[in-house]
Amino acid sequence: MTVVVPLIIGQIVRRHIKDWLERKKPPFGAISSCVLLMIIYTTFCDTFSNPNIDLDKFSLIIIVFIIFFVQLSFMLLTFLFSTRSNFGFTPADTVAIIFCSTHKSLTLGIPMLKIVFAGYEHLSLISVPLLIYHPAQILLGSVLVPTIKSWMVSRQKALKLTRQPKAPVKV
Question: Which family does it belong to (predicted)?
Answer without folding.
Answer: Belongs to the bile acid:sodium symporter (BASS) (TC 2.A.28) family.
